[in-house]
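Minutes, project check-in
Item: structure for the 250-residue chain
Input as provided by the requester:
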Amino acid sequence: MLIKSLKLKNFRQFKGDININFSYDPQKNVTIILGDNTYGKTTLLQAFNWCFYKTVNFDHNPKFLLNYELSEEMLNGSTNIVSVEIVIIHENTEYGIIRKQEYKKINGKTVLANEIPLKVWYKNEKGNQLSLDDSPETWINDILPKDLSTYFFFDTERVNSISHKENVTEAVKGLLGLSALSKTIEHLGTKNRKDSVIGKFQQELDTDNEQDSAEIEQKIQDNELKLQNIDEQIKETKKIKKNMRIERKN
């Protein structure tokens, strides 16, 4: 996944429309954003989290996303939109992810009026923009699991919380396509677990081996008895021949 651009509209510190283009050139693929404290670097990171996963981590009034200045300027009954759009390139296809909220001024207070459903679009081979209607949230999580988002959108102001993240291993497995393999291995189990697939197979194998060993042992015993009988027959035959020679001499 390569991030191509980020577009903000009235998101926290950013009043109006703000567009940021990122370099995704294979030879020049680093974009540096500089800013003093409180200038919005952390807000940009949170914009990614909100657009992708509908989650933010602000210290002050975290659920209110509309620009404060704009909120103060609103008249009763008026509305404003907060939106974040991220354009990415994934597997050689361009996608756009758009999340919006509508705020309304009621009795002098700005409140969340409507959460507009997440929209994901993509461009086909002809360059036409089409809507991705099949579970966009699941599609996003497949590209970048939510449990890994902190490591990609790394907020140094909250570095201590990174050690408390759970399910990172599972998220990495999902990102690398190893979840199915991991579940298969877990299902198969080990030969030491009698209730696992491999354990049951090992038991059957051991049972078969025991049966085979018993059959082989029985065959050995039977053949030993046959050999003894043959030896006795040979000895008896030799005695008979010896007696016949003695009688002929006499």
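Outcome recorded: The first helix runs from residue 41 to 53.
No further action items on this chain.
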